[in-house]
Specification:
The complex is a heterodimer of chains A (295) and B (247). Chain A has 295 residues and is an all-alpha fold. Chain A has helices at residues 2-40, 47-65, 69-90, 100-122, 149-171, 173-183, 185-190, 195-217, 227-242, 247-267, 275-286, and strands at residues 140-142, 145-147. In chain B, the strands form two sheets. In chain B, strands 6-7-8-3-9-10 form a six-stranded mixed sheet, with helices on both faces. The chains are: A mainly alpha (295), B alpha/beta (247).
Amino acid sequence: MIENLLFELEMAAPQVILGLVNGAFYALLSLGLAIIFGMLNVINFAHGAQFMMGAFVAWMLLAWAGIPYWGALILAPLLVGAFGVLIERTMIARLYKLDHLYGLLLTFGLALIIEGIFRNGFGSSGLPYAPPAAFNALNIDIPIMFLPGYRVWVVIASVLVCLATWLVIEKTKIGAYLRAATERPELVQAFGVNVPRMMTLTYGAGVALAAFAGVLAAPIYSVNPAMGANFIITVFAVVVIGGMGSIMGSVVTGFGLGLIEGLARVFYPEASATVVFVIMAIVLLTRPAGLFGRG
Amino acid sequence: MHEAATMTHPATGQGHLILEIRDLEAWYGESHVLHGVSLDIRQGEVVTLLGRNGAGKTSTLRAMMGLVGRRAGSIKFEGRETIGLRSDLIARTGIAYCPEERGIFASLDVTENLMLPPVIAPGGLGLDEIYTLFPNLKERARSPGTKLSGGEQQMLAIARILRTGARLLLLDEPSEGLAPVIVQQIGAMIRAIKQRGFTVLLVEQNFRFAQTVADRHYVMEHGRIVDMVANEDLASSLDRLHEYLGV
């Protein structure tokens, strides 16, 4: 009986941990989407492409400039975030007065263009990016499982960044402006706050979060133009389940659904690819605003 | 010279001209809501805009803040033309706006709501003074803004623009929907801020309340100013006002 349980645990633990690692990416990506949607009312379909750009910039920094992982972890989000600022200023900002759908179509088009450019330049087979050896110190090697240190780091980094983002939004003056402008941008601007600039910086920050996730992902998945597209569909389901625009909701739901996917892989593997979408359908039918959404 | 003018006793309404609006027109999309509004306000005055629903009172305030679709004409504040400015830059010239729906943020607590509008000039009220004027706001500092009673929300909406150093306050129907005793408190508060040298442009439907706080009243109809009554002449003009306001 006990042996049976141990065996089950041995089977389950790696999948659960893998689920947690996926959840770490879901959380980071849906957090960026939630911030962007809350402030700009734009569903940023280019999020997956920007995640992929983060991974590619990390690869380029290493291959072309010799800048290692830690440098890339800081630089890639800054560079891709700056690219986001440029996109917001030159294109997205023109669409705020129109229906949400236009922002979605624009960013969807941008995603296709960006992915196309990278496929042209780098092919679709993927480029290797080795994690720094230092992470081996974090390896978890216990009887029921072996977990590479780098994946431990991914979970820790994601939790820390999500927590820091939450703190900035909930506990600082900048966060108060952001929350207020999410509710009534017009009034916040009439108080003397430059709301258009806030929107630009918010988009840049959301894109930088995607790129940060991309750098984290580079050593785990091969760096390839489709890596964002693979993730983003699930991430949108996460956002819908958590509640569009809810910060806490996207983080909790991201990790939660990663875990559920992992568990599904153990107990009913056939459902592992669809469980998130089944949950999404149920949530949409019973709580259309999402688990953490308002109203 | 301005210095000397500001020294004049505010109650007499004889300070320098702080606001000059000429031929202000405004549109929301296709709908033309203001048809040439002209009015003046002197430093230290409390002036009301009276009129029926839809006369253009709220639109006048919103047009001053740059919150309408399109506007034309001239709005000079402290001699500076603001008609072409974006609303955040208008606010930074020293005008603060308290909307009719109060605009308290649900996702911010009372203190965050209070501290939200950035300070744009020295000379605003300090937190101590604000808490003296509005003791409830201190007691409920950590409550979500929208959990306050209607009267407290109105106090908060006014208190937060007293901090910023803005000299001209645009208040849109602060008495609306509040119990008589709260309306009296709001009246006392408006008189108190007038004492401190603030200039107030007040939109009101309730002219019984307006006459307890204001120096002058402009009457609006169909997007225009149609009359002006000094508060001391109010008694002799009641018939005229009744006709305008339909009360």
